[in-house]
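Fold this sequence, please.
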Amino acid sequence: MTKHLSIIPVKDFVIFPHMSAYIDIVNETLIKQINNSFKNGEEVFITMLSEYEDESEEDSFCKTGTVSLIKQIIKLSDEKIRVLFEGVSVANLLKTEENSVEVEIIEPDDKNTQKEAVDLSKKTILAAQVRSLKSTFNSFANFFPQLTEEYKKSVIRQKNPYKLFELIAFNIPVEPYYMQNLLEERDIFKKINILYKYIFSELETRMLEMHIHQETIQQLEERQREIFLKTKLEVIKRQISSSAEGNVTYTGYGEDIDIDIENTLNEFEVYRMKIENLPVEQNYKDKLFSQLRDLKRMPINHPDSSTLRTYLDTVFELPWGVFSKNNNNIDKAEKILSKDHYGMDKVKERVLETIAVHLLKPDITGQIICLVGPPGTGKTSIGKSLAKACGREYARVALGGVRDESEIRGHRKTYVASMPGRIMDAVRLAKTSNPLLLLDEIDKLGNDHRGDPAAALLEALDPEQNKAFRDHYIEIPYDLSKVLFVTTANSLDTIPKPLLDRMEVIELRSYTREEKFHIAKEHLLSKQISRNGLKKSDIAVKDDAIYSIIDNYTREAGVRNLERKLASLCRKAAKEIVSSENFPDGKRKKVIINKKNIEDFLGNKKYLPDEISLKNEVGLTNGLAWTAVGGTLLPLEVGVYNGRGNIKITGSLGKVMEESANIAVSYVRSIADKYGIEDNFNRKKDIHIHAPEGATPKDGPSAGVTMVTSLVSALSGIPVRGDVAMTGEITLHGKVLPIGGLREKTMAAYKEKMKTVIIPYGNKGDLYECENVVKENLEFIFAKNISDVLDVALVKNGVK
């Protein structure tokens, strides 16, 4: 049977019937032909070019080719397409026409053979050929790691000679010349014979290459051993000579004899010794030995050779079974923490507890601390001090912005440029199995299609699981139970609950004014003096200047901006000193900075003090509020006017504060007689409640007692003491409920020169957190109900 088909000549490639393959086409004429044939559902004739000549020359085509179907076309660019062909049948080229060729379809050999009776001798020969081909292929396949075990088994199990031929010929690299011969040959006996000869020839070549490689390696090993022994002999002779002269230096002997054995001995022997000494289970050692055998078989320039070496080196660099000696001296640890950081009593106490427990139970595990607080409060820097106090090595793992699970668990070795995860890499850098790992900014972890890093951390931070933490790259369980994990975060809201449940949370609040002063004076100033090339005798920053920087140039929870301002002072002082050195007397000028001249160095004040009046006024009460940068005094004003009982609330007050205002008005109605207030003021008077600084949003229930006091004062005409500040939530029955942020609020009252502070009775136990200077200079009133507040805050009783 003949057909008229479009011809597709290709270079160095042959496609067989039942075989599918992608071929890239760049010839413009061929691209048009293929598109037309694909559009019309026509077959094409694929034949190999016999030589590297122009495709238009008829003599350059092989006469036997394959009739194929076009299954798919992928456009790679305007001048290049990738086509998926599927072979249908073998055909011979009869003649070439203008845009096509005439071919004769050749009946498949397996159909013709099955119709004829095959005698016993042919069956025996064919069976012997098949068996020889399978045996040779089995040895040949060992040189190709990309051939899977399942594929090898399918070849061995195949009994049909035609399918066996296709299974082997379609999947192994065969030179184009042999492929064309196999296509042209119709007899199955000869087909299998040709394939067998090719595989046998390739197998002999590969075995010869391997033998040459092994002989070369052996010669190199013998040469290296000879060099090592000669070097060692020379060292021994030199030491004997030194001993005879009476100049033996044992340290020198150690240094001389400890030559670089790893570079002198065979590297494979070094790897073998390291694997033997690795403190892991035998099945993991066997896995490493398997990797080492693969490395031995590879040529030096093989692309996988460097990958395997990097993997083995990374495994051996991990501190398997190496532990640093912990500091068990509590007094020494306390001195280190106190020297490095001011305040932070909770964190220091927790570290000392850890050391004490370790003394009583050395094998204690599962210690995970989470430090939560505003930026600049020293969460990261305290990590270094904790490691120093505990006597552990320190390593930091930055987690901010990490969105890929592989950053935590590592990348699998099959990927290009794969590497271990950040946790294992930190352990490797720490060079000990019990370091302090600081997981910084754990609340900034993200997640996307590449996985959830927070979920990957669950195994590392779970004391029941991290005894055998498995990194995807290392693939050998590693014990992280002795690691002291310390995490930092600005907020707990974004940390997943399962992860948060595994950590002990210690809250670092914003620094108070006194804490900032001590940190600046005892730590930051000396640090900046040294960093800017000054001596302590060159500059003097008075205490009032430091207080002025805190109050008038910075407003923050931490001390970062405070440190920047101190650095600015040091730089300007350095400039003055350098200029003064050119004076005729040549003396270095000492720069003195105080509250009076600080504006000459830092410019105009950014934050001016609040206008707080200490006078007794009607309808004006000093409340206390907590902010992210510390406490503040919040005056609350109430105005009463003739009207219809409307209540106006201004000053950017939130929903909770509006509810507190309504509760306050309702409660004042219940005590109106007691303070001489009209019973029907809620119908005849308009009330206006205002909190200054309207641009700043305010919310929270702690202004309840302040609102009641201002309302009673405004409606009764009784003034409120100007030296009293207060905070507390109220109920409709007049009870005063506890509030938060007491430490910051009381510091604000002290700063604004208040004399008396009224706080809820339920906060009496929290007073220990307040600064000593605050407790020494303020009188505290503990209120159970609103009458306790009014008795102190109002100038005169006014009660009937």
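Confidence is low (pLDDT under 50) at residues 52-56, 111-118, 245-265. The CA atoms of residues 614 and 670 lie 30 Å apart.
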